[in-house]
Amino acid sequence: MDNNKHQNTGLDRRGFLKRLGIGASVTGLALAGCDSASRKAGESLKASSEIPTDKMTYRTNPKTGEKVSILGYGCMRWPNTKNEEGEEVIDQEMVNRLVDTALEHGVNYFDTSPAYCRGKSEQATGIALSRHPRNSYYIATKLSNFSPSTWSREESLKMYHNSFKELQTDYIDYLLLHGVGMGDDGIKTYEDRYINNGVLDYLLAEREAGRIRNLGFSYHGDIAVFDRLLSEHDKYKWDFVQIQMNYVDWHHAKEVNSRNTDAEYLYTELEKRGIPAVIMEPLLGGRLSNVPDHIAARLKQREPEQSVASWAFRYAGTPEGVLTVLSGMTYMEHLEDNLRTYSPLQPLSEEETQFLYETADLMMGYPTIPCNDCKYCMPCPYGLDIPAILLHYNKCINEGNMPTSRRSPEYEKERRAFLIGYDRSVPRLRQASHCIGCNQCAPHCPQNINIPHELHRIDSYVEKLKQGTLS
User: Fold this and answer.
1) Is the C or the N end of the chain the one with fewer CB within 10 Å?
2) Residue 442 buriedness (CB in 10 A; 0-12 / 13-18 / 19+)
3) 3-class SS at 81?
4) Where are the beta strands (DSSP E) in 343-468?
5) 240 — phi, psi (to 5°)?
6) 344 upstream amide cis, omega within 30 of 0
C-alpha cells in the first residue's frame, strides 16, 4: 500500500468510484458479516459455487509489511449451545471448526473484545487460535472500558492484561481503544477513559516495547472525538482506525441514525493521512444480506450466482485504503459465502458502485431500526429481550409483512404474520410492553438508537394490531 497516494483534501463520489477500480490485481480486501438473527432469511440468497483454497486477497500493512487477509473474522457472534445444566454457552467445538476453516482458506485477522459474547469471546477465540502457530494469524482486541467503573487506571489496565491471558499470547497485533465517541459527551468520556488516567500513555509505551504491534481506535457517534483523535495523529501515530462503512452509510448514515457520520467523510479523512481503515458493519447489522424482496431481486438479476451479501462485501473491500473487512460469521455457510467473495476479490466497477448507490436510495424508503444485535444494551433490568424485539420488527419490514392499513387487501395476512411471529420470536414477558423507559440501555448502544422510544413505538403499533385500531 502506497501511503503517498491520494493525498488530496477531498473525495467526491466520482473520485471514490474511480478508486474502486484501482489495484485489483495487486491488492484486495475482505468483508463479510452475516448476522445470526438473519440466518434463515439469508440462506436462500447464498451462492453455491466451490470455495477456492488459495485465492484469498491480501492487503499490506504499511507499517509492518504484513499481509492481512481482506476478510477479517469478527468474533462478536460465536455460535452457542446448551451445557449439561441447560445454560447457553459458546459452542467451542464449532468455534474451533470455524477458525480452522478460516485459516485453511487464508483468513488471518481475528477481531475480538472483552465485551463480546457476554465476556467470553476472547477466551473462546484464544482456545481456537492457540491450536495453530502464533505466526499464522493476527489478533485484534480492544480496551472495552465502557462503564465508568472501569475508567480508573487500575481497572483499565487489569482489563488490558487479562486479554493476554484469555487470548493465550504475549503480544497483541492490533489493539483498539473501543468505541470512542460513544456517550452524550464524547470528548469528556474519551478523556476520562484514556487521557486523564494515563492509560493511553501506558499503551503507547506498550507499543514501544512490542507487546502491542499496532495501536488504533474504533469510532462510534461523536464526530468531534474522531476529528480530535485524527488531529493528534502526529502525536500518537495511529496505526489503523476502525470505522463503519457500507454502501448505505456512504451517503445515508445520518438518515439511518442522526448520530452517525457518513462513511464518505470518515474514509476520506483516514485516506488523507495514510491511515489504514478496518471496516465494521459492512452489512449494516445484517440488513444488507436480509434486504426487502424487491431489492434482493434487483441484486440477483445482476448477479444470479452471487449472494446478496457479496455485493456489500465487494463494496467494502474495493477501496485500496481498507486493510481488512470484518464479518461476524456465526455459521459455516456465512464463512463459506464470504470466502467465495474474497477468494479473490473482484473490485466493483464504477457502474456497479453507482448501481449500489441507487439501491441504497431505494432502501431508504424502508424505516428499519439500525440494530446490529451486538447486545450491548443487555441485560435489561426488567427482562426485555431488546435485540429480539427490534430485529423482529426489522424482519417484518424487510419481508413485506408490515400491516400499514386495514384497507389493504393483505392486511389480515400481514397482521397475523406479524403478531404470531412476534410471540414466537420474543416471549411475552420479554416484549416491548414491559419497557418502563428507565433508559439504562440507550447509553450503551453503539448505533445511538433511542431504544426506549423505539420500544414504546413498537408496543403502540402491536397494541393497535391486536385491538384492530390501525387506521
Assistant:
1) C
2) middle
3) strand
4) none
5) -170, 160
6) yes
Burial class (CB in 10 A: 0-12, 13-18, 19+), 398: buried
Report the distance separating Cα 37 and Cα 58, nearest Å: 29
Mean pLDDT confidence for 82-87: 91
**What nine digits make up the cell of 470?**
390501525
What is the distance between the terminal CA atoms of the chain, rounded to a whole angstrom? 57
Give φ, ψ of 389 to 5 degrees.
-65, -50
Strands 322-327 and 277-280 turn out to be parallel
* Residue whose C-alpha cell is 458502485: 353
Question: What is the widest separation between alpha-carbon atoms in the chain?
Answer: 69
Q: Residue 258's pLDDT is what?
A: 62
Question: Cell 489496565 sits at which residue?
Answer: 157
Q: What is the DSSP letter of 195?
A: I
| Per-residue DSSP letter, 136 | G
303: phi > 0 → left, psi -120 to 50 → alpha, else beta; which?
Answer: beta
Provide the residue count of the chain. Answer: 471
Q: Could you give the percent of the chain with pLDDT greater than 70?
A: 88
Residues 337 and 266: beta-carbon distance below 8 Å: no
Q: Tens digit of pLDDT for each residue in 407-434?
A: 778 888 888 888 999 999 999 999 999 9
